[in-house]
Structure formats: structure tokens, C-alpha cells
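User: Please run a holo structure prediction.
Assistant: Happy to. Please share the sequence and the ligand.
User: Here you go; the ligand is dephospho coenzyme A.
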Amino acid sequence: MIKSKLLWEFIEGVDVRIKNVTEFLNDICPELEYRVAKIHDPFGPAVVDDTMQLLVISQETIQGGMKINEIRKANDLPELHLLPLQLIDEPNPGPNEEKKISSSNTRIRMLGTVIHPIIPNTKIPRSPYIIGLTGGIASGKSGVAKHLTDLGAHVIYCDDIGHEVYKAGKPCFDALLVYFGKRIIADNGEVNRKILGEIVFSDKKELDKLNSIVWPHILEEVENIINNTDKKVVVVEAAVMLMAGWQNRCHEVWTTVVPRKEVISRLVNRNGLTEEQAVARVEAQPPSTFFVEHANVVFCPYWEVDYTRQQVLKAWELLQGRIAQLHEGKLQCDEGKRH
Ligand SMILES: CC(C)(COP(=O)(O)OP(=O)(O)OC[C@H]1O[C@@H](n2cnc3c(N)ncnc32)[C@H](O)[C@@H]1O)[C@@H](O)C(=O)NCCC(=O)NCCS
Ligand SMILES: Nc1ncnc2c1ncn2[C@@H]1O[C@H](COP(=O)(O)OP(=O)(O)OP(=O)(O)O)[C@@H](O)[C@H]1O
């Protein structure tokens, strides 16, 4: 049920939420007798429990309360007295936030902030500071990367490097030709990515092989660029960051998430896929929760572009504070050379 909610990936597991509710109830009234129930549909025990008398609801869920009474009636149970509570206004709603106090607003406000603590990476030099930017297909990574470029970061696009490393004459070209054969070579003598894509995205074994050939060369090129930049912050944009284990070469991982429905509609509009093909592409990838679980900072490029920019600006300003702390010695990182 929670998957229909905005930024549901931030919602804690049901057991944690039950524990928090229980602690809250104990805190405000230790004598209270209560039972906290997990619900798997919009009604829960309210439609079957004959000991219940009263249902406390919010003004916006009155319809739900009436539906519960309808079902109780059909189940030969007495109707519940409905007690609607007034909604409390959000005193300072930001753009795209709800006008009432709500947990959606709390989740929106987490965007651009550190949601999982940053464990100092002592295996890489402290400068430049490396951000791994990842996320699912069409989740807005490139847009976020562009805002970061505007703010002064050096952005490395791994998709582009991936295309470069198997250009004719480059290190991976022969290896791909030997393994996949002439069928992947276009008339102009270059690798035909459309054909290669069709082969690897329909066969995991082939994708693993392609990755094993190409990833070490992408990483080498990324390290090369990092070693030669004069920027203080480098952003490595890679959809495959976490699958390739490149986060170990970063100080932080940032990710983008947008609702699944929106991703599918972008794939249909941007990539010209049918809805069925778009769903298949999304399902072939790790779920959005995977990216959020592994990320320190999350963006949701779902609304107007300027609002994405605001999320990125917030993250950037907070990042400057962390980098300053690192240089004051409050956070630890190795001084040594990158390897
Ligand atoms: C499979 C290939 C030939 C498809 O080329 P094509 O031009 O059609 O797509 P493009 O490179 O622009 O990638 C589009 C998207 O596909 C996804 N994707 C690409 N490679 C992979 C991969 N190895 N594993 C999972 N998803 C991938 C990403 O979401 C990416 O943003 C090409 O992506 C490729 O050579 N991939 C292997 C190298 C790689 O991992 N590159 C990604 C580095 S981030
Ligand atoms: N805030 C936004 N509002 C509306 N559309 C957006 C927004 N951000 C991105 N888009 C659109 O969504 C699509 C995907 O965005 P983008 O290319 O940045 O994603 P991506 O994660 O880099 O994609 P991929 O990895 O698939 O190349 C683009 O067509 C872009 O115009």
C-alpha cells in the first residue's frame, strides 16, 4: 500500500513504525491499553473487530470511515462512531509541499540532506572530493549532474566513457569483437551499440561478459580524469556505480529517484519505447529502494526543473560544510595517492 505514496522509499519498515508508535503511547500514557495492528488493506481490523466503537479519522478520510461502516453493516457489525479531527495547517509550506502538516512534507524536506551517515573513506585521498551519482534509468541523473556542473563540480559521465573505450582502435574493441563476433560491428567499422544492447539486455550472461571487459577500462579512465582535475569536487555519474562497486572509490554516494509511473512515461516519451518495453527496462534494474539504501543523499527530479536545482543547491551547500570539516581534520581520510 505504501508504494503509492510520494517518496515511499524513505518510509521505515512497519516493525520500526510499530515500535515507534508503541514508545509514543507508553510515553504519553503508560496506563493505556492498546493493540497496534499491521494492516494489509485500507481498512484493517476496523471492518471485522466487534469490540470497536469509535473511529478517529482526519477530515480528508471521512469517506474511508463511511466505507468502513458500510462494510461493517454488511458483516452484521454495529456501525462505528466517526470522530473526524481537524487538519493542522503547515505554517510554512515550501514549493510542492502539502498545505497540511504531513509526513510527505517531512520526506520532501529530506531531499538533498544526508539521510545515511557518511563513513569516511580512508582508502582514497581527501582531495578532490568524489561523489558517486547513480540512480535508475530516466531518474534524472543527467539533470542533477548538470546542476552540479553549474555549481563548480567536475562531472564525469561514465556512459560516455563506456562508449569511448570500445571505439575502433581502443583497448576493448578487439576483446568485444573476439567474444561477440562480427555481428556487433556496424558498416562504419564501429561497435553497433543498438545491436550490442539488444544482445546484452536480453541475456544476463552476455551483459556480465560485456561488463567484465569494459568496466575495468571505464574505471581506469575515470581515475585518470580524477588525477588530473583541478576541481575540488568530482561527480562520477554512473547508472552501474553500485553494481560495479565503484562507490568504494568515492567519498559519498548520491542518487536520484522518481515515481515508477513517471519513469515509465519518460521512457515512452524520451526513448520512444512502448509501455511494455519501458516496464521491462525498469524491471531489469535494481529497485529504487536499492539506490536509496546505499545513498547518503537523495534527489527527486520529479517536479519542475528549478525545484531539482534547489534540491541540488541545498546538497551542495551542506557538502561544502562537510568538506571544510574534512580539511579541519574533524573527518578522517587518507592523504595518500589514489590507486
Ligand atoms: C549496452 C550498451 C551497448 C547500450 O548502448 P546504448 O547507447 O544503447 O545505451 P547507453 O550506453 O546510452 O546506456 C543507457 C542506459 O542503459 C543502462 N546501462 C548501460 N550499461 C549498463 C550495464 N552494463 N548494466 C546495466 N545497465 C546499463 C544505464 O541506465 C544507461 O544510462 C552500452 O550501454 C554499454 O556498452 N554498456 C556497458 C558499459 C557500461 O556499463 N556503461 C555504463 C556505465 S555507467
Ligand atoms: N525535474 C524534471 N521534470 C520533468 N522532466 C524531467 C525532470 N528531470 C528530468 N526530466 C526528464 O526525464 C528524462 C530523464 O532525465 P535524465 O536524462 O536526466 O535521466 P537519467 O537518469 O540521466 O537517464 P538515463 O540514465 O536513462 O540516461 C529526460 O527526458 C528529462 O528531460
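The longest strand covers residues 129-135.
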